[in-house]
Amino acid sequence: MTVNVDPVVIMKQEVGKAAASRVKSDSIVGLGTGSTTAYAIEYLGERLRKGELKNIVGIPTSFQAEVLAKKYRIPLTSLDTVDRIDIAIDGADEVDPNKNLIKGGGAAHTREKVVDSLADLFIVVVDSGKLVDKLGSTFLLPVEVIPMAVAPVMRSLEKLGGKPELRMGVKKAGPVVTDQGNLVIDVKFDRIDDPACLEKTINNIPGVLENGLFIGVADIILVGEIKEDRPLVREII
Ligand SMILES: O=C[C@H](O)[C@H](O)[C@H](O)COP(=O)(O)O
């Protein structure tokens, strides 16, 4: 693993490694997106290389996950060729006490929701800074929208009490374009009291493909923490 002294990076590395340790040989593995899952993918590759793990195949949730899997020589397949996913490992932007999530900080939540929801076991990997009492308190809610529907979807989101903004690229002029060729609207809600209802309401707006609320999908949350200068991984079941 890459050596780093930034405490957040250490927490991400530890939790990624802990999740990858739970993968068994002969498994179909959902490969999540983001900086935390990247460590899990790296460690899965290391376990394969050492022969600790045999015959796994990955289903990537994004172009990023696909590139990393290829780098670490993890064989890949698609949902066209498998009838199950044994385990999925993925990050999150917020986790509430009911294991509900906001995801999509990397604009990958649509494919992530497909893969993570299909997994027999979905393990979420986060550092302790992602734990919140209420969803929406620290992170805007990502909504993937087809390009021609951006303006009406924004108006509908305002009617729901949200403050929407089109996500813009960094080191790229213009908006962020998802792996599916769509755009992302990030929405600030003052409070999300009923995330399950909001998830469905937003997905019912014509032109919306998927939003970043993951309700009742996560099985286990692995939280990277630093206690008394030592990294540890706490499990929430
Ligand atoms: O779209 C991206 C994903 O939902 C990520 O899993 C999420 O944003 C967490 O990413 P990170 O581990 O980099 O904080």
Automatic annotation (TrEMBL):
Which one GO biological process term can you cite for this protein?
A: pentose-phosphate shunt, non-oxidative branch
* Enzyme class, first EC level, given as a word: isomerase
**Gene Ontology, cellular component aspect:** cytosol
HAMAP family recorded for this chain?
Rib_5P_isom_A
Family recorded in the similarity comment: Belongs to the ribose 5-phosphate isomerase family.
Functional summary from the UniProt entry: Catalyzes the reversible conversion of ribose-5-phosphate to ribulose 5-phosphate.
Asked if the record carries the keyword Transmembrane, the reply is: no
Record's keyword annotation contains Isomerase: yes
What Enzyme Commission number(s) does the record list for this chain? 5.3.1.6
Entries under Pfam families matching the protein:
Rib_5-P_isom_A
Q: What pathway does the annotation place this protein in? A: Carbohydrate degradation; pentose phosphate pathway; D-ribose 5-phosphate from D-ribulose 5-phosphate (non-oxidative stage): step 1/1
Tell me, how does this one assemble? Homodimer.
What's the protein called, per UniProt?
Ribose-5-phosphate isomerase A
- What Gene Ontology terms describe what this protein does at the molecular function level? ribose-5-phosphate isomerase activity
List the active-site residues.
Answer: E112
- Sequence positions that bind substrate: T33, G34, S35, T36, D90, G91, A92, D93, K103, G104, G105, G106, K130
Q: Which UniProt keywords apply?
A: Isomerase
Q: Which reaction does it catalyse?
A: aldehydo-D-ribose 5-phosphate = D-ribulose 5-phosphate
